[in-house]
Amino acid sequence: MQAERRLESPAAVWSRYGAIIVLAGICLLPIWVMVGTSFKNEVLIFDGRPVWFFFVPTLDNYEYILTRGKFDRYLVNSIIVGTASTFFTLFFGGLCAYALARTEFRARRFVANATLLVRMVPPAVLAVPAFAMVTMFSLKNDLAVLTFFYTALNLPFAIWLLFGFYKQIPMEIEEAAIVDGATAWQVFYRVLLPLMKSGYAVAGIFAFRIAWNEFILALLLTGRSTRTLPVGAAGFITDTGVEWGRIMAMGTLIAIPPLVFTFFAARQIISGMTAGAVKG
Amino acid sequence: MAETATGRIPGHPRPRPRPRFDSRALTPYWFILPAVAVMAAGLVYPVLDALYLSFFNWKIATPFSKAEHVGLANYVRMLADPDVRESLWVTIRFGFWTITIEMVLGVALALMLEKPIRGASVFRTIFILPLMVSPVVVGLIWRYLFDARVGWINYYLGLWFGIEPQVWLGVPDLAFFAIVLTDIWQWTPFIFIIVIAGLQALPSEVLEASRIDGANWWQQTFLVKLPMIRSILIIALLMRLIDVFRALEVMYIMTGGGPGRATELLSLHIYNRAFDAQLLGYASAIAVLLIVIVFGLSAAILAHGNPMNEKTDV
Fold it and tell me: How buried is residue B231: exposed, middle or buried, by Cβ count under 10 Å (0-12/13-18/19+)?
């Protein structure tokens, strides 16, 4: 047993790497299918025989999407809703997490538990009331509504995450600032915020990703001119016939920001994902 | 709370009374106000509104003032509704298969791969990709793979096993299998990532001790490691369970809930009832059922402890 631990046989090492590579392949394969298909022409796609790598790539699908559809409109909408809701989530969530992590007040326990509870509210439950609200006040062409709901959906998780980050900052740093005569606001803004950069970065990635990817509320709460990218992509199915090349091109474009985040901040994203279950 | 005033310097004015908000007890409330207000208006109010709407018979595109107050009729109808029951049953079966397979696979893979390896960060990055991609995009990709005419799955099943092409998303059992497989692809990495984080955080002394005591691999895994990460496993399981009741986007794209109601999870059922059948009040009653289920499960998580409840001072 001990020997096995200290010095693994080459066969064991190889089989472990083999398993990991197979798994990575399984994760990547469907994503590659999407990217690959987006560069294929219709003949190749409807031929029915999968071609993995060696085909003559075409940009026709992208050209169609970028010029004929309303891609630019959807893109702008997605960016507006994504950045605005991320901003409000971080701003409001940061203040709330700070208070929860650093002060004791009567409603603290209640707010902490309620935050965890409302995090679980299913989007399907929001659908009808949100739709009723939007139709009643005819807000269907207002991105503010979507921004508002994404902020609400994102706040619980952001508060939870930022709470953990605030906890990691030693109290002495703030106490030193207070002794030096800083006000509560100055302590928060001048002392803590700079130390919280990575925490806000992680929470921001999660918040933006949710807003960028969300579909069902966007479908209900947007009109012709306020659609976001996922709604636009789903629209390609209901059109006459399913145009796989164009759908996959759209899917690829939607997937780019989350994939870029993943490549640059995988470690932080994983720490955020495990924060709920693994302490520390 | 460390409230003792320490280190008074003689001859100096008394330092400001320890502020830390005690002197301004309202300050924390100003800090939490914006977030609490948004969550109350955007999450709590809709839940209450759904409860209120569930007592009405309200059709889409008619003003609410014309809606008829029907008391508990929607709930009575719901309890007797075979479609609701079927959708609930689909959700339970879906949850059972996906979560069982994801937990077993995720834990097995984590145990197999917990030892540090070269290039771990690259592999970890790849493993979380399925989690980062939009559910709509996931649905689109798998709808293509399962497509009866041009899908890759039919092609390779035919090539390798000589299986005739199937209309995957058009036959109830096959469609159910398809959404289960898609979910397993997307969420097994989540379990894997959480479990591996838990395993790597285990104190090495304990494992060392059990090894010295002569525990073999099986004993070490099932009597030491897994019991030690039990609470992680339970929370991961509960989080997945809640997700099953929240899920609808992937199925909406892949099958729309069909054929029949074979893939119509409860969330999707509510959506379809509200916006397909256009029965907003009735859909709200089912939404209340859903929220009761989800809050019940969430209470189970809370019972495991909310880290935000820890005492504020370290």
Answer: middle
- Check CB contact under 8 Å for B239 and A103: no
Interchain CB distance below 8 Å, A132 and B64? yes
Tell whether the model's pLDDT for residue B170 goes beyond 90.
no
CATH code of residue B254: 1.10.3720.10
Look at residue A44 and tell me whether its pLDDT is greater than 60.
Answer: yes
Candidates A66, A65, A231; CA nearest to A143 is A231
Q: Do A27 and B133 touch (CB under 8 A)?
A: no
Instruction: Provide the token pair at B245.
Output: 């009741």
CB contact under 8 Å between A270 and B291, yes or no, is no
Alpha helices in A228-280 (DSSP H): 229-238, 244-275
Q: Is the pLDDT of residue B4 over 50?
A: no
Distance from CA of B314 to the nearest CA of A (A): 8
Q: What is the distance between the alpha carbons of residues A145 and A136, in angstroms, rounded to a whole number?
A: 13
Mean pLDDT of chain B: 83
Q: Do B124 and A213 touch (CB under 8 A)?
A: no
Count CA atoms within 13 Å of residue B101 on its CB side.
15
CB contact under 8 A, A234 and B284: no
In a domain, B180, yes or no: yes
B290 domain-assigned: yes
Chain B interface, mutation test: which of A105, A128, A212, most B Cβ atoms within 10 Å? A128
What does the pLDDT look like over A119-134, one tens digit per residue?
888 999 998 898 888 8
In eight-state DSSP terms, residue B168 is: G
The more confident residue out of B3 and A155 is A155
Pick the CATH number of A65-276 from 3.30.429.10, 1.20.950.20, 3.40.50.720, 1.10.3720.10: 1.10.3720.10
How many cross-chain Cβ pairs, A to B, lie less than 8 Å apart?
Answer: 334
Partner-chain residue, chosen from A24, A91, A181, that has the shortest CB–CB distance to B126: A24
ipTM score:
0.86
**Does a structural domain hold residue B50?**
no
pTM (two decimals): 0.85
Per the listing, tokens 């003003």 go with: B63
Q: How many residues does chain B have?
A: 314
Count of the separate structural domains present in chain B: 1
Q: Which domain holds residue B275?
A: 66-307
Residue A134: the pLDDT is 84
Q: How far is CA A115 from CA A19, A88, B74, in A?
A: 40, 16, 30
Does the structure show a pLDDT above 90 at A246?
no
Q: Do A33 and B152 touch (CB under 8 A)?
A: yes
Of A50, A160, A181, the CB nearest to B152: A50
> Nearest C-alpha of chain B: how many angstroms from A155?
7
Q: Which amino acid is at B43?
A: L
CA B170/CA B256 separation, integer angstroms: 11
CA–CA separation, A230 vs A124, rounded Å? Answer: 17
In a domain, B258, yes or no: yes
- For B68, half-sphere exposure in the C-beta direction (CA atoms, 13 angstrom radius) is 8
Could you state, in order of their start, the residue ranges of all structural domains in chain A? 65-276
Q: Can you say how many angstroms the Cα of residue A274 is from the centroid of all Cα atoms in its chain?
A: 15
Helix ranges, A137-196 (H): 143-168, 171-179, 184-186, 193-195
Chain A partners within 8 Å of B252 (Cβ): 215-216
